[in-house]
Write a structure and sequence with these properties.
Layout (H helix, E strand, L loop, with lengths): L5 H4 L1 H4 L2 H16 L2 E2 L7 H5 L7 E5 L24 H14 L10 H5 L2 E5 L4 E2 L11 H13 L6 E5 H5 L11 E5 L16 H11 L11
Parallel strand pairs: 2-3, 2-5, 5-6
Antiparallel strand pairs: 1-4
Length: about 220
């Protein structure tokens, strides 16, 4: 399904009757109504960032539900789409933290190719209905992805913004990983501790301390 090492890592999920039944139901939703992201982008995060290459995980909730926005990466939108408020705040924090000016679009594909797994907990959504596919069957898969990454020998940085993402910390028990938490970058909470949290420099300082190549966060 993916085309890299995730296929073997997630085989137990892919092959399970429960997931197969759920996934077929989701595919039928595409035929009945408008669902985002497009079918070929559902697993975009896993396709762009293999298990082996994952250094950092940024957990999102579910895809953007507006036309042309969702592209299978948490917080990211297609080029040509207005940058959502949360991503605008992520760009602001990136500039305050590392002095990197905001990109003119919201496509975070470059981060994914740098080893940043941009994983939403729910991988599809119905048009204009946020959280419409929550608790339908995606969470066992995405929770399992976190659990599998927890077993990784190389240290991984988990960036958990907001209470929803912080719930995933219960699956991150291996002490050689690094968890960064803060309020969500949403306009409703960004000023409550997201701004000034320095997740980007903290990530790179940790990776360098483990003799791992830091992330090039510059999207320009």
């Amino acid at each position: 399904m993916i085309g890299n090492d995730w296929d073997e890592k997630l085989k137990v999920i892919w092959d399970s009757p429960g997931f197969q039944k759920f996934y077929q139901t989701i595919l039928k939703e595409y035929d009945k109504t408008t669902v985002f992201p497009p079918k070929n982008y559902i697993f975009n995060a896993l396709k762009l960032t293999s298990f082996k290459d994952t250094k950092v995980v940024i957990v999102g909730q579910d895809p953007y539900h507006g036309e042309h926005e969702a592209m299978g990466l948490s917080f990211s939108v297609n080029k040509g789409v207005k940058i959502p408020p949360s991503l605008q705040n992520i760009y602001k924090e990136l500039e305050m933290d590392l002095g990197i000016p905001p990109k003119s679009d919201g496509d975070l594909t470059k981060w994914a190719k740098e080893g940043v797994l941009l994983l939403n907990a729910v991988l599809t959504v119905e048009k204009d209905k946020p959280a419409s596919h929550r608790n339908k069957g995606w969470e066992p898969l995405t929770d399992y992805i976190i659990k599998i990454l927890n077993t990784k020998e190389e240290p991984v940085v988990f960036i958990l913004w907001g209470n929803f993402a912080k719930e995933k910390s219960k699956y991150i028990t291996n002490p050689h990983h690094y968890i960064i938490t803060s309020p969500h970058p949403s306009p409703f909470s960004a000023y409550s501790g997201f701004f000034g949290s320095k997740p980007f420099s903290k990530t790179n300082n940790f990776l360098k301390s483990k003799n791992l190549k830091p992330i090039d966060w510059n999207l320009n």
